[in-house]
Write a structure and sequence with these properties.
heterodimer, A: mainly alpha, B: alpha/beta, five-stranded antiparallel sheet
């Protein structure tokens, strides 16, 4: 019993220590954004790597999410005779919730895991030390560029996710299920406000930052062995996914 | 060129290096030798400023590395090259881009000039024509030679070598050793080599430092080291299993662990047959 309580205490303390360590790491990294040497084209290269690299998976997920929302939504709405509201139902769910959350989760799996693994392997193979020895600040070059790339890419990916999802929802709702096209679009435009879009974008920005910080942190603090990197990658993906869902609830509660 | 004063490095409670005072003279090849776990890689990382000492100081051209700012440390590193044990080439870049990397980062040289320098450095290590290969396509020895070319790209005053010959076939190891010797003589740079390869180490050294358990146990010219009458030095040079340096790190008696008795009358360590 006592050992169990002791164990719990130790786990909590370790958790808090790690949280503090991660926060300091994040602040220390982001501070470098305002200090020379500027990383210019390296931001662009990382945005290309994490952003463009995730494009296909985002488009596929977006399309099928919009399709299933439309299909499922129609069958529920038609029971109460309000299928005219299918457009806003699909659009609201996509823009406010499913777009940012699903895109973030796919992004974690596609880009986040590779960031942790890459940084971990760079440490195992001494590439980080090599950068340092060549007088390149590895934290700015490797960590900062990836954190910023995540924060920039994810909102853009979410926007693409939303557009693809909306289009796919429209195709299913109007062309397949026979909802009037004018009603679908008219109701959608009528019911969606700027604050819905803002909520979605703000979420995606925070999710991007969160994923960037967690994945780089886990890579940087991974035990520099093969299994250490494997373990850190798994943990990073799990932690990011859970944190995205928790943060989603918190931000949603501010934007109701 | 490089001096340390009462340099100590602890990892937790364990002293990896204990009161190291050494002097690396300019234009010489200094070889730091020792068994695995003797602290030689830690020492090299401290000299390079990749680790900070627990106490003591490291002077690089009269500046204490433990006290200089990060910015100054980066400036000093422009005069330093380093060859890592596993080459540490940047995986995402080609051989050419790897060698050109420090030049692109820190100089405003024209593309043609950089091309000339890279070609010269690759010729020096005998790998001209491999510019477009990726590090993953290279063998260990080739990767090390590319890393060597990269370390030389900025014409450094000091080059650190971490186990330059380990994991290489005898020919590649010989090539790397003679490259270290030749470049040091030709360019008057200062080389610090960490190795456990006794033969290669003694061949290229102007000055040898022998580490054991974080302490310097012998220091001097290769000839002096070879003829040293310290039994620890002789055991290391000749690679004998028996001697003052124990092979086994076990702290309990082998016979006790086998028979599950805790009898402190037995000597710790494993049983070895005397010659």
């Amino acid at each position: 019993m006592i050992t169990a309580i002791g164990q719990l205490g130790r786990t909590v303390i370790t958790g808090i220590e790690k949280l503090g360590d991660a926060t300091l790491f994040a602040l220390d990294t982001l501070r470098l954004l305002f200090a020379p040497p500027w990383q210019g084209k390296h931001f662009v290269m990382q945005i290309y790597a994490v952003g463009v690299g995730s494009l296909i998976i985002i488009i596929i997920t977006g399309a099928f999410t919009g399709m299933v929302l439309s299909l499922q939504g129609y069958h529920m709405l038609v029971k109460v005779g309000t299928e005219a509201l299918l457009g806003p139902a699909v659009a609201l769910s996509l823009i406010r919730e499913l777009g940012p959350v699903l895109a973030a989760l796919m992004f974690v799996g596609r880009a986040g895991s590779s960031i942790t693994a890459e940084i971990g392997i760079m440490r195992v193979t001494e590439q980080m030390d090599a950068l340092e020895m060549m007088a390149v600040n590895s934290q700015a070059r490797v960590m900062l560029t990836r954190v910023i790339a995540c924060a920039v890419s994810l909102p853009l990916l979410v926007a693409i996710f939303d557009v693809v999802g909306l289009f796919a929802g429209y195709v299913i709702g109007v062309d397949m299920l026979g909802v009037n096209s004018g009603v679908y679009i008219g109701e959608t435009v009528d019911k969606i406000t700027l604050s819905d879009i803002e909520a979605g974008l703000v979420k995606s920005l925070y999710f991007g930052l969160l994923v960037g910080v967690i994945t780089t942190y886990m890579g940087q603090r991974a035990t520099a062995t093969t299994e250490g990197v494997a373990k850190a990658t798994t943990q990073a993906v799990m932690l990011c996914s859970v944190m995205v869902l928790i943060l989603d609830y918190i931000i949603t509660s501010f934007y109701l | 060129m490089i001096k340390t004063h009462a340099l100590t490095k602890k990892f937790g409670e364990m002293k990896a290096l204990d009161d190291i005072n050494l002097h690396v003279r300019s234009g010489e090849v200094t070889v730091i030798m020792g068994g695995s776990g003797s602290g030689k890689t830690t020492l090299l990382r401290l000299l390079a400023g990749l680790e900070t000492p627990s106490s003591g100081s490291i002077f690089f051209a009269d500046e204490d590395l433990a006290k200089v700012s990060r910015k100054r440390l980066y400036e000093l590193r422009l005069k330093v090259g380093m060859l890592f044990q596993y080459s540490a080439l940047l995986n995402s870049l080609t051989v050419y881009e790897n060698v050109a990397f420090p030049l692109n980062e820190h100089t405003d040289l024209d593309k043609d000039v950089i091309h000339t320098i890279v070609t010269m450095k690759l010729e020096q290590v005998g790998l001209r024509g491999f510019e477009q290969m990726m590090p993953s396509q290279l063998s260990g020895g080739m990767a090390k030679r590319v890393a060597f070319a990269r370390a030389l790209a900025m014409d450094p005053q000091v080059v650190y070598f971490d186990e330059p010959t380990s994991g290489l076939d005898p020919i590649s190891a010989g090539v790397i050793s003679s490259l270290i010797h030749e470049t040091t003589v030709k360019t008057r740079m200062t080389s610090v080599v960490v190795t456990h390869d006794v033969k290669a180490g003694l061949d290229i050294a102007d000055h040898v430092i022998l580490l054991w358990q974080g302490k310097v146990i012998a220091e001097g010219k290769p000839g002096t080291i070879k003829n040293s009458d310290d039994p620890r030095v002789q055991q290391f040079i000749e690679g004998r299993p028996n001697g003052p340096i124990p092979f086994s790190r076990s702290t309990t008696a082998y016979v006790d662990d086998l028979t599950h008795v805790n009898d402190l009358t037995h000597k710790p360590g494993c049983v070895r047959l005397e010659e």
